From TrEMBL:
This is Aspartate aminotransferase, putative. It comes from Bdellovibrio bacteriovorus (strain ATCC 15356 / DSM 50701 / NCIMB 9529 / HD100). One of its GO terms (biological process) is glycine biosynthetic process, by transamination of glyoxylate. Belongs to the class-V pyridoxal-phosphate-dependent aminotransferase family. Residues 29-330 form the Aminotransferase class V domain. PANTHER family: ALANINE--GLYOXYLATE AMINOTRANSFERASE, AMINOTRANSFERASE CLASS V.
Length: 387
């Protein structure tokens, strides 16, 4: 299926891969302790700071994003530490659970699914608990497509000299502005198969100076994810364990592509796809699920008489387009369309047209052929008028 030219991968990760990056992935293997690879690693570790918008070092770990989330926790926390976890979906739940697993004393702020956390709720809880060691938040809660107010949360956390602001930016860093240093983020993790437009297998993370004050004495068990080993190895021009040669070489190409077009343009293109999906989702009869929608993924509530899981499956089996459904309480109620990765305009037009046909398949009264044809024409025009 994935070898066909008419297949569209429009999930919020993994994402479709740029042809130039695919070429890099097909190169013959080289050893990671070679001058050739050393050069690539050095270049990547320098260039990547531009995307993180930080002066701090960035680390590349061979793990999925969740491994990077774990690395942020175990390197900064000790058992018994008080942690405020913002939970508004699956990934917030996972991080709160992980922190509890490592012995943190977790205070949870639950925001309803589809909503962003209220900054004042975090402010109040921090006032009552000034001994909080870390505030945990997703930049984009991928399960609900909500963007949390990271800049505002960073401002509040900065007022507490011993409280760290840790951000899971796996579907945000590289998709929209999230300047780590300027926003007072103390630990941040990105993921290769999401905004970094690579296959799964790398987590990318960085710590602020403030976080480094706590790293030496953190008592949570850490071995593979001990960032001190990685820091030392990176300073010597290597990674501590075997380098992920294939993905780091591919990351080099991604970073080159980003630097050629500029971060602004990357963010613009993703924003444009999100805008397009929100506008044409509404025209097709969906409504927006997220009240503060992220640009990296859009969640659309399906018409009440329909089942989102069936829409997702039909779109894949009949039209060769992969999007995602909802999880848990959103299961069947929403579909999610990803905007990260290598996506071309003709895929967006086809998405609108095929979603129209899919809705018609389940309810021919809901969607006429004429309506599908009109919306598809409008979609083409919109993309031409909004480059
Ligand atoms: C995908 C995702 C994760 C988990 O990443 P894995 O690579 O599957 O471990 C964590 N947080 C967010 C916000 C995500 O979107």
């Amino acid at each position: 299926m994935a070898t066909q030219d008419d297949y569209s991968l429009l999930a919020p990760g993994p994402v479709n891969i740029h042809p130039e990056v695919r070429k890099a992935l097909a190169l013959p293997m080289i050893h990671h302790r070679t001058p050739e690879f050393d050069k690539i690693l050095k270049k990547v570790l320098t260039q990547i700071k531009t995307v993180f918008q930080t002066e701090q070092d960035v680390y590349l770990l061979t793990s999925t994003g969740s491994g990077g989330m774990e690395a942020l926790l175990v390197n900064t926390l000790s058992p018994g530490d008080k942690v405020i976890a913002i939970v508004s979906g699956k990934f917030g739940e996972r991080w709160a659970d992980m922190a509890a697993h490592f012995g943190a004393s977790v205070l949870t702020i639950n925001a309803p699914w589809g909503e962003a956390v209220k900054v004042s709720d975090v402010e109040e809880l921090l006032q009552k608990n000034p001994d909080t060691r870390a505030v945990l938040c997703q930049a984009c809660e991928t399960s609900t497509a909500v963007a949390h107010p990271i800049e505002a949360l960073g401002k509040i956390t900065q007022k507490y000299p011993d409280t760290l602001f840790l951000v899971d930016a796996i579907t945000a860093l590289g998709a929209y502005p999230l300047p780590m240093d300027a926003w007072g983020i103390d630990g941040i993790v990105a993921g290769s198969q999401k905004a970094f437009m690579l296959p799964t297998g790398l987590s990318l993370l960085s710590f602020s100076k403030k976080a480094w004050r706590f790293i030496p004495d953190a008592k949570c068990p850490r071995y593979y994810f001990d960032i001190r080993k990685e820091k030392k190895a990176n300073a010597a021009g290597e990674t501590f364990y075997s380098s992920n040669v294939a993905l780091i070489r591919a990351l080099d190409v991604v970073l080159t592509l980003i630097s050629q077009q500029g971060l602004e343009k990357l963010f613009h293109d993703i924003h444009r796809r999100a805008e397009f999906t929100r506008i044409f989702g509404l025209k097709l009869g969906f409504t927006l699920y997220a009240q503060s929608p992220s640009n990296s993924v859009t969640a659309l509530l399906v018409p009440p008489q329909m089942d989102g899981q069936k829409i997702r499956l039909h779109l894949e089996e009949v039209h060769n387009i992969t999007i995602m459904g909802g999880q848990d309480q959103a299961k069947g109620r929403i579909i999610r369309v990803g905007h990260m990765g290598y996506i071309q305009d003709h895929e967006l037009i086809r998405l609108v047209e095929c979603l129209g046909h899919t809705l018609r398949h389940f309810d021919s009264d809901f969607m006429s052929l004429e309506h599908i044809s009109n919306i598809t024409t409008e979609a083409k025009n919109w993309l031409e008028q909004n480059p």
